[in-house]
Amino acid sequence: xxxxxxxxxxxxxxxxxxxxxxxxxxxxxxxxxxxxxxxxxxxxxxxxxxxxxxxxxxxxxxxxxxxxxxxxxxxxxxxxxxxxxxxxxxxxxxxxxxxxxxxxxxxxxxxxxxxxxxxxxxxxxxxxxxxxxxxxxxxxxxxxxxxxxxxxxxxxxxxxxxxxxxxxxxxxxxxxxxxxxxxxxxxxxxxxxxxxxxxxxxxxxxxxxxxxxxxxxxxxxxxxxxxxxxxxxxxxxxxxxxxxxxxxxxxxxxxxxxxxxxxxxxxxxxxxxxxxxxxxxxxxxxxxxxxxxxxxxxxxxxxxxxxxxxxxxxxxxxxxxxxxxxxxxxxxxxxxxxxxxxxxxxxxxxxxxxxxxxxxxxxxxxxxxxxxxxxxxxxxxxxxxxxxxxxxxxxxxxxxxxxxxxxxxxxxxxxxxxxxxxxxxxxxxxxxxxxxxxxxxxxxxxxxxxxxxxxxxxxxxxxxxxxxxxxxxxxxxxxxxxxxxxxxxxxxxxxxxxxxxxxxxxxxxxxxxxxxxx
Length: 518
Hints:
The protein is about 30% helix and about 20% strand. The chain is α/β, with parallel strands linked by helices. The protein has 3 domains: about 5-125, Serine Threonine Protein Phosphatase 5, Tetratricopeptide repeat (Alpha Horseshoe), CATH 1.25.40; about 140-385, no CATH class; about 390-495, Immunoglobulin-like, CATH 2.60.40. It has a 6-stranded parallel beta sheet. Strands 15-16-22-21-18 form a 5-stranded mixed beta sheet, with no helix packed on it. A 4-stranded antiparallel beta sheet has the order 14-17-20-19, with no helix packed on it. The longest helix has 21 residues, at about 20-40.
């Protein structure tokens, strides 16, 4: 395919980067269909699904690549397969080793053009992309001055379902918050006082991005620089009323993977709980789970601001070498979270850190002892940076098979289950990795008799009774790790709950309806 043909093909789609978020759910559904067809060896469905993917996202290189792989199974359609492969390369799929070693494409190995395209992919690696979701140019500016990102500065990650920002910022002068970004996602409603943070760079979107409301609601942009942000929005109407925090663990859980990525790339986010818990809510604690990927605050608008400002000031208090190391390792957010939890007014000693006092569903308004927080940050040495604990959780097979799935989400640092089988006694196995020493404790669910047994230093068994759980009485198991010379690090979580349609409130998204199957 010539570059001119590619220009016409891309121009004909009339898609912009702002169209991708709305198309992501359908893309993910097609991707699941393709994987299932591939596992079954159904080449006809593979091709059909890929063509639907190409029609949905004409400039996604992966759909073109998958279509090439599908067509390669048909001996008389090699030209079509190679045309699709070339377009995939032009749009950004330039991993020549992957192309050369792909077993699907081995059927093209004797075709000279296939070998030429492998070389073409290798040559194209160093060339900038001109079109498609991976074709971006850097936004340039100076740290400390606002930056407005436009379509040309944003790519789209089809795996995570989020934007990727391209930026190159220069230092005007060294100030306490130089190198740190801030973004508000509620239209400035709960904006922090930026003048209190000299050198900080506020991130905005251009007029088109704001018109598309891409700067509102759940965070969806990955950055190469540390970013702190907040959003006081919530879903307040309909049966699925809930805070952003609860939405990310229920009806918006598809976006939790992106939040995990942000957690591991130095993004620190805070959302109010709104009516999901007291003092605003009147139904009790209606969260069915908890994650470490963001902080939830008790209250409505503005309850998030004290925690964003505390986190920013704690970051500025870090020794420069410690701060640089945390950013490089992607541990800034977990570490700042750990320092905040240990500095809550209710946390008086190390034992308190392993209780609900340090791990509330929603953090209390102005609940941080900032003097203690900033002192702890200033004293943190590189060799004292605590580790993160990766989890692998499995639930024992029930005697009765539930209609609805019991695992509502799983990730490296957070798992959530809704017990649906009729079995009373349930057992979870947790395999731990990432530290030299571990601690596994219950931090939520005082009404539940939970048994925790360490079979090995990195293997735990958790036993719960289903009848002791309910829509407002979940169990949180928190897992901590430390290495020699470090303190205990940020929590990873296993949350366990049970829904009950006869209860005063049982999350309708998680509660099966008698006439409705998943």
